[in-house]
Amino acid sequence: MTAETTAATPLALNDLPMPEHRDTAWRILHDHGRLIELDNGFAATRPDIVEAVLKNPEIFSSKEAFDSLGSPIPLVPIAFDPPEQTRYRRILQPFFSPRAIRPLEPELRRQVIELIEPIAERGACDFIADLSGKFPIQVFLTLFGLPLGMRDQFIVWKDAILEMSDASSAGVQEASQDGMRKAGELFLYLSDLVRERRGVAGQDILSQLLTAEGEDALTDNEAIGLCFLFILAGLDTVMDALGFGMERLARNPDRRQEIVDNPSIIPAAIEELVRLDPPAPFVPRVTTRETVLDGHLLPKGTRVTNLLAVANRDEDGRPEPYEINFQRGDNPHVSFGIGVHRCLGSHLARLEMRIVYEEWHRRIPDYRIADGSTPRVKWPRGTIGLKSLDLVIGK
Q1: How far apart are CA 173 and CA 40, in angstroms?
Q2: DSSP-based helix, strand, coil % in the chain, nearest 5
């Protein structure tokens, strides 16, 4: 392999037509090259390069990439590399296995139905504000044993903090005064919560983590960092995946009818919809030493952004990658990441999406985007999603 550097003009992610034409933006990036130079580093657009980066944390560090995410303490476990990350993963994994989250389904289904039924009665909604923006917060509150009445407060905290993010780096560049104030409020709340739960038996995840002893015991800062991670990385991602999925279904009535006629296809539909719109399409890493990647010599400290949505559209072995096809069968994608940092909450996210799609289409089989409404992507931002999705019930 001959190391070389690119002479092309660096591409600015912020200039992409993402707000209204995200598929076009992904196509532009795909056609730009395999490893493309950005105004703040490089971007990997092919599955083999993404795999090479994400499976080699000793060269491509997650810790350094997330140092600027805006949390007053490191986020557990994504802001760590092995071997520290390995310990956190071992401690947390049992709480997010399919077996562990399955008992949550009846309560989460009840909550979803409670959100959907008023929408069906009204005949219209903003799907983001009325459902997908609320349900993941309620899931977090349920998991951590907090009252659902705190949902709206957590939405305020989350939204203010995430407004500080920048799409090109998946992190904070210039922290707004309001965002920093909200981050401080959340930190104080979580600090008090951890102190209150320490050593107190309970069925929620946080209580169980805080009663662990020995090498599995988490410090207060580690437990707070875990909570911050859930809020900053685990709530908007599900909201955005659901919003994008419902927008595609609203625009593709034939695919929607497949779900209505055969709900058993929903797991396959989720994989296809998530393939097209990964919950977190930009996954950053920073090189720990000089290295060669796909023929390019990268100095130490180079930022490499893995473009998961682009990698998922690679045509090798996948015909018509920009089309929605629930009949693909085996449908490998990198939307939940790969390697040691593969999304810890992927099973929970799939459960949330499955419940929403099942209960929505059971009650609301026909819906469309409201006349005069144009769903727009929040951009630039580290995690992208629709600002709103105005739906009208019926044809």
Answers
A1: 12
A2: 50, 10, 35
Q: Look up residue 243 and give its amino acid.
A: G
Predicted confidence (pLDDT) per residue in 12-33, tens digit? 888 999 999 999 999 999 999 9
Structure tokens at 36: 């493309």
Measured in residues, the chain has a length of 395
Contacts of 76 (CB under 8 A, 6+ apart): 88, 92, 218, 222, 223, 225, 226, 229
Q: What angle do CA 321, 323, 327 make, to 5 degrees?
A: 90
Structure tokens at 177: 């005064």
Instruction: Note the pLDDT tens digit of each residue in 184-237.
Output: 888 899 999 999 999 888 999 999 999 988 888 999 989 998 888 888 777 889
pLDDT (tens digit per residue) in 228-242? 888 877 788 999 999
Q: Which amino acid belongs to residue 120?
A: A
Q: What domains can be seen in the chain, in order of their start residue?
A: 57-277+317-393 (1.10.630.10)
**What are the tokens at 275?**
């393939």
Strand partners, 172: 165
Instruction: Check: CB of residue 307 under 8 Å from CB of residue 42.
Output: no
Q: How does DSSP classify residue 168?
A: T
Tally of CB atoms within 10 A around 225: 24
Nearest-angstrom CA–CA distance, 242 and 261: 20
CA distances from 190 to 70, 87, 198, 222, 274 (A): 15, 22, 12, 11, 31
Pairing of strands 303-307, 41-44: parallel
CA atoms 53, 56, 61, 66: torsion sign: positive
Question: What pTM value is reported for the model?
Answer: 0.92
> Helix, strand, or coil here: 202?
coil
Closest by CA position to 94, among listed 349, 350, 344 = 344
For residue 338 the two structure tokens come to 């790969």
